[in-house]
Amino acid sequence: MVTNAISDSVHCPHRFSVEQYYRMAEVGLLEPDARTELIEGEIYHMPPMGCRHAATVAWLRDQLMKVVGEGALVLEQYPLRLNRHTEPQPDLILARPRRGRYRDAHPTARDVLLVIEVSDSTWLYDREVKMPLYAAYGVQDAWLVDLGVTQLDCYSAPHGGAFVEQVSTRAPGTLVVPSLDVSVDLAELFSFGDQSVS
Questions:
Q1: What are the tens digits of pLDDT across the range 45-97?
Q2: Does the CA dihedral 80-122-190-133 come out positive or negative?
Q3: According to the CATH classification, is domain 49-185 in 3.40.50.300?
Q4: 39 Cβ partners below 8 Å, 6+ apart?
Q5: Which pTM value belongs to this model?
């Protein structure tokens, strides 16, 4: 009887390490301007960032910078090293201040005070893949801004690989960042671009 050696063996996908991922970019296997993330060893291609997405990220960055002072660094589209096979790039990270501003190493989950994802076409991926990933690695607080339905989901209290608490609102008003005990004015989160400029 002839057996197929391939079908009879255990199949495991190859998982890239962060080092291999960076090397692929260095040698040109990844386009220099490609938007990618490494999630559990797999490379995910991200869609181009639309105008509304980019403007919302910039607006949120400005709102956070107004209130955090020297208590945190506001990092935009910055790599977050979760393990040797996982390095997402959240839209925004509030990170603990570090000498050198993370010049020598990317922030890890222990450095994160808050992570924010802004979603339009990536909402399902952000909710089903990235939020559980942040919880699994111990990120304490995460916000998911859903531009499609104008809703803000606030996740907290990670336990057993999932966030235990979730609060959703379509009129966020003022929210507290628990790790810093500062309030952020988000009343215009979904309408900041609606005012005409004269």
A1: 888 889 999 999 999 999 999 999 999 999 999 999 999 999 999 999 999 99
A2: negative
A3: no
A4: 86, 88, 129, 130, 133
A5: 0.88
